């Protein structure tokens, strides 16, 4: 029996018996739910994160992600199968290592793999024969093989022989109550048969369906295909919104009716732009890589530009409606923004279009405040460090009536839309939330934009 085969067989047995020790590197919106799901399946699991505050909060059983069940983290920690740590030395104990660190864009809007490189360097220091390392972060096709693998192999161990290397893209949808980590099929890919078998076996113990693909690059491309599809369709529906409005047609009604077609159509909804660390980012990884190999993706690039411009379009529209219906210029006007998260019912403002709109309105001279039930105080974000520390205003009739315009940027469930409709002097809705809830604001003071 060769050494490679015996390492493979031994890890396979440990995975099949749920004895393999798992470490997720990164305990964010992706790594934490993944780590908890794995520990709930019965694998002893450790979450490794550089963020001391987050590690302490998780070990104290705090619900650090608001849409988790109240006691999910506490149960995992007190149950003894899950703990968080900052100590990279614990990687020496792990059999399976899952990398779930951020992959943002650089200021030049190019892929920033610095967190992935940091995680790979950290793992390389503790890599031992027989471990399975899996990258879950979104990267361009080829990155795992050409960027991560050489770092891991620096100490002399070989992927597919001494240790195993796979890619499995995250498909987390924060706040989605219809699907959870366990019920979302997991794509798994590797460049060698042993790594592919191991990642497939591992995830088949955890999720309801695995989807094996033939290579690391294919698995990497799957994620980018999914997000580019969303990017293009969101740009399309926002473009249709403007054209249909000029024809006197409500795009929301059109999408709702079109969605009844049982094949060949999938609904996407208009809005103030796209946000989060995923959809606005990953198509840029695909485009960048396409250029790198002498190809191009003009449709994806056009959609990205349209989506990037959406917050500016909305801010411009606020100015137009204020002058037309509110009878006053945007400069000097008081505007209340409802919802600063990038989408409803999540406490995440990364790349939020609401913040881009706020910035744009303030550049036009407006005086903006916000209300968001998830953010009593504006958090620090990479894109908007200057906004940090601002306070959410309370939502009362008196407060709402004090603004020249109220803009619904994010349709959180916990906002009192009846109160808003009753008191707003001018109400601008980017999410169709009033119609969706059967709340009818006064004619002449309300417009969907
Ligand atoms: N959030 C989503 O909805 C979503 C969905 C699908 C895929 N993704 C992708 O998943 C990846 C992770 O995203 P996320 O939203 O979980 O990010 P996140 O910012 O919520 O969490 C990342 C965590 O990694 C930690 N970290 C960074 N570098 C580290 C290192 N070297 N060692 C240990 N910990 C480290 C950070 O402290 C942070 O807690 C990204 O590639 C993203 O594009 C995100």
What is the gist of this entry?
The protein is 40% helix and 12% strand. The chain is α/β, with parallel strands linked by helices.
What would your notes on this structure say?
The protein is built from 15 helices and 13 strands. It has 449 residues and is of the alpha/beta class. It has helices spanning 3-16, 31-41, 52-59, 72-78, 114-124, 143-152, 193-204, 216-246, 251-258, 282-292, 298-326, 353-363, 397-401, 417-423, 433-436, and strands spanning 22-25, 45-48, 82-85, 96-99, 132-135, 164-167, 186-189, 210-213, 334-338, 367-371, 405-408, 427-429, 446-448. 40% of the residues lie in helices and 12% in strands. The termini are far apart. It binds nicotinamide-adenine-dinucleotide. The site of nicotinamide-adenine-dinucleotide (NAD) has 29 residues, from helix 5.
Question: Which descriptors would you attach to this protein?
Answer:
single chain; 449 residues; alpha/beta; Rossmann fold; 2 domains; 6-stranded parallel β-sheet; 5-stranded parallel β-sheet; 13 strands; elongated; binds nicotinamide-adenine-dinucleotide
Radius of gyration: 24 Å
Largest sheet, strands/sense/barrel:
6 strands, parallel
* Overall pLDDT level: 95
Distance between the termini: 68 Å
**What is the CATH C-level name of the largest domain?**
Alpha Beta
**How many structural domains are formed by the residues?**
2
List the strand order in the largest sheet.
3-2-1-4-5-6
> In CATH terms, what is the fold-level topology of the largest domain?
Rossmann fold
What small ligands are held by the chains?
nicotinamide-adenine-dinucleotide
Give the class from helix and strand content and strand pairing. alpha/beta
Q: What amount of the residues lies in strands?
A: 5-15%
Discrete helix count: 15
Q: Give the helix level as a range of percent.
A: 25-40%
Tally of DSSP β-strands: 13
CATH architecture of the largest domain: 3-Layer(aba) Sandwich
CATH superfamily of the largest domain: NAD(P)-binding Rossmann-like Domain
| Shape estimate | elongated
């Amino acid at each position: 029996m060769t050494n490679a085969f015996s390492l493979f067989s031994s890890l396979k047995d440990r995975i099949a018996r749920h004895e393999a020790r798992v470490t997720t590197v990164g305990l964010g919106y992706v790594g934490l739910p993944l780590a908890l799901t794995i520990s709930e399946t019965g694998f002893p699991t450790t979450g490794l994160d550089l963020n001391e505050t987050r590690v302490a909060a998780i070990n104290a059983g705090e619900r650090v992600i608001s849409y988790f069940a109240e006691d999910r983290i506490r149960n995992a920690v007190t149950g003894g199968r899950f703990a968080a740590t900052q100590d990279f030395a614990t990687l020496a104990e792990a059999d399976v290592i899952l990398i779930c660190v951020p992959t943002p864009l650089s200021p030049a809007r190019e892929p920033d793999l610095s967190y992935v490189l940091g995680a790979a360097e950290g793992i390389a220091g503790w890599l031992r024969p027989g471990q399975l390392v899996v990258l879950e972060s979104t990267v361009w096709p080829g990155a795992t093989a050409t960027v991560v693998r050489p770092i891991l192999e620096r100490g002399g161990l070989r992927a597919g022989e001494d240790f195993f290397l796979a890619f499995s893209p995250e498909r987390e949808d924060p706040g989605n109550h219809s699907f959870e980590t366990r019920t979302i099929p997991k794509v798994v890919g590797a460049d060698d048969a042993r790594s592919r078998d191991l990642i497939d076996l591992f995830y088949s113990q955890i999720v309801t369906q695995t989807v094996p693909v033939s290579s690391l690059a294919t698995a990497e491309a799957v994620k980018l295909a999914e997000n580019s599809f969303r990017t293009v369709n969101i740009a399309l529906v926002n473009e249709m919104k403007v054209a249909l409005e000029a024809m006197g047609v409500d795009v929301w009604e059109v999408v709702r009716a079109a969605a009844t077609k049982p094949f060949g159509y999938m609904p996407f909804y208009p809005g103030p732009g796209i946000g989060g660390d995923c959809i606005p980012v990953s198509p840029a990884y695909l485009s960048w890589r396409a250029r790198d190999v002498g190809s191009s993706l003009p449709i994806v690039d056009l959609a990205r530009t349209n989506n990037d411009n959406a917050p500016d379009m909305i801010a411009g529209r606020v100015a137009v409606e204020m002058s037309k219906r509110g009878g006053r210029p945007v400069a000097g006007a008081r505007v209340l923004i409802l919802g600063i998260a990038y989408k409803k019912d999540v406490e995440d403002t990364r790349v939020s279009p609401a913040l881009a709109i706020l910035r744009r309105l303030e550049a036009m001279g407006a005086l903006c405040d916000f209300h968001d039930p998830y953010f009593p105080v504006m958090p620090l974000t990479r894109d908007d460090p200057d906004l940090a520390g601002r306070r959410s205003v309370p939502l009362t009739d008196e407060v709402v009536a004090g603004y020249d315009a109220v803009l619904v940027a994010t349709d959180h469930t916990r906002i009192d839309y009846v109160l808003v409709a009753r008191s707003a002097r001018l109400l601008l809705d980017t999410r169709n939330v009033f119609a969706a809830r059967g709340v009818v604001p006064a004619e002449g003071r309300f417009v969907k934009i």
